[in-house]
Protein 1
Amino acid sequence: MSASGDHVEVAVIGAGNIGLAVAYYLVRKYGVSRIALIDPRDPMSLTSAQSGENYRNWWPHPVMTAYTDDSIRLMEEIARESGNRINMTRRGYALVTRRSDPADLVEDLYRGYAGQGERVIRIHDSGSPHAAYRPAVSAAWEDAPEGVDVLCDQELIRKTFPAYARDVATVLHIRRAGSISGQQLGQFMLEAVRSAGGWLIRGEVVGAERAGPFALSIASGDETVRLCAERVVNAAGPFLKDVARLLGEDLPVSCVYQQKVAFEDREGAVPRNLPFTIDLDGQELDWTDEERAILAEDPATARLTQFIAGGIHCRPDGAESGKWVKLGWAFNERAGDPHGPEPADDHFPDIVLRAACRLQPALRAYVGRLPRGAHHYGGYYTMTGENWPLIGPMATPGVFVAGALSGFGTMAACATGSICADWIMGGQPAPYARMLSLDRYRDPELMAELAGLQSRGVL
Ligand SMILES: Cc1cc2nc3c(=O)[nH]c(=O)nc-3n(C[C@H](O)[C@H](O)[C@H](O)COP(=O)(O)OP(=O)(O)OC[C@H]3O[C@@H](n4cnc5c(N)ncnc54)[C@H](O)[C@@H]3O)c2cc1C
């Protein structure tokens, strides 16, 4: 559809999970129908296509806990009304360490679940009856308990998670956590926006002028069309800064490339009912002396011979009757340039596999012989320094940002869309919404508190 000469109430730049969610909640909460979603790519095909599609309400700060809790509630609403088209499951997140008394992790739990910690955190030590812990019996989200089970009893851990190495001493089992299909969520939202009268315009926004309403220039093939919009939303994912620049603004975000590998687990190394598992302990990888010497020689790979912080993910992927597994490790901390070629590292599959073997020794069967057809991919975590999102007004009146969703944009899309729609329409955003907007940088106390946290919740 040509947008030439058209005029909309809201133009949303970017049709990833976030732009779609903003448009969806504008329709759903405020009945806005004159919406244009603008994107040169297929909807959901950039960062949103790379998501591990996991969700959790575990964060080291109560604002992020409340925000993701709200998002999970909204996802549940969609799951309920769509016959679970978004494939929501809830086997939890299992955060694993070899430390027998991780007081810092438990402290993070109490801080994150502020006010409800006593009610939702259940400690299971060697004195507790095993029956007090209810492992996930099914993947159904409706069946899972709330809160967190902290397993400190090695016998209980071995009985519940026999695939883990025997040195695991503590498991934090976050129960309000699991997986969804982000693609289905996006498709569901796009259909709702379209059936309410919204448009999807294929093109890149290359100019934005404030002339009464905004006049957007949209490059599409050989032509550039113009669209007038009363309000504009910057939901451009890794290109948030470029869109801000069109309006003479800057945003405090950077893009950090992270990778995953998925492969067919022909040996059945990973139990199909395993929660999304994260090894929190850092490690030095297990190279042979010869490998270590070769890697250490090259400045590009020398780091792989040193200690790397934890956070190795492993999860069965797809149906319980399926065979695929996904591994990830967001250890890269260096910002990259999303305009350039993707910096995928050919060593990554081998690195993450070796690291994952420490927790799940059966994966060793694949070291040096990953199955043919293994899929190595990645995308940018677009993030602020404190790893909180940016949702709300930009400096230019009438322009809003919904982005910097780092590694949590699938799980937080619904709350982000809902909060941004409230800002746009002058509704009542959630009590914590101001802290997720650019306004937080005017709150030195909050920023100092965030700078002092021992974890930013990056997984
Ligand atoms: C490897 C990896 C694993 C992840 N795992 C998880 C996970 O398990 N759980 C989770 O919740 N999150 C996860 N995430 C994070 C999640 O994928 C992202 O936060 C989310 O997809 C971001 O969505 P977005 O809409 O902001 O960005 P995108 O999906 O990148 O969409 C932005 C869109 O804006 C468009 N655009 C840009 N500039 C313009 C312009 N000028 N004009 C028009 N359109 C424009 C782009 O074409 C693009 O389609 C992961 C991310 C990565 C990279």
Protein 2
Amino acid sequence: MKYLEVAEAKDLPGLRLVLTAFVPGPWGESAKKILEYKQIPYAPVAQYAGKANEALVAWTGIRNAPNAMYDDEPPRTGWYDILMLAERLAPERPLLPTGSEDRALVLGISSEICSEWGWGWARRAMMGTPFAGTPDPARVSALSKPPWGPEDSARMRTSYSASVGGPAEAPARCADILRMLAARLHRQKAAGSAYLVGDSITACDIYWTVFSMALEPLPHEVNPMPDWMRLSYEMIGPVIEAANDPVLLAHRNLIYERHLSLPLDF
Ligand SMILES: N[C@@H](CCC(=O)N[C@@H](CS)C(=O)NCC(=O)O)C(=O)O
């Protein structure tokens, strides 16, 4: 993907989407796939993982990504705010049901996947810790290095480590979310629907499809993620392994086949 630098993007009209450059960050990829589904054009702007990103902070007040900047409106950085902007810009391809009960379900499931201490957050909390298992030393020694140093790691730890739970609690939390998603998919299937809620695609199908990369990343041919990132996404540890159900990745595959493009482009 060709990214603009902040200086090139900040005075442009319309939608600019700040993304962590050169990695498929789950929150950023979800925002991209929602915009793709809704056919909303945007200019991608680079954020550099872990770095101070001074020009970005001066422009938006936000250091990390994603961050949707629409005309002169305030920055939108949380998954819900970005989704609501997309709903407003392309209401003709809705990703939220109109009925309140189904809407509550879609937003609740999305929150379990994307919010603080949801699937993505808790998975990240356990990455690189013994709770994700012990990697093969031969594989580790062959890995390229992430493009950040100790100061950048500390910056990211400050952003993401404080939450309801830490690495020790993360596997059980992640497993509980997987069981909820799998049970729902089975129930929906039995009722004749291929989707998590109702009988058409909604935002939570897209969030699960993208965030499932932290259960099993898509193969390199369609997802050329850096090798160090692939290893941490692949290592799920025994508790999550036990909660895995084939229906979860089957759903991811179906949503890509029917609704979203591959390969991932980051
Ligand atoms: N603010 C987002 C979450 C954003 C997030 O966690 N971003 C991470 C992606 S792993 C990031 O930007 N990491 C790189 C960095 O902090 O520099 C939300 O609540 O929906």
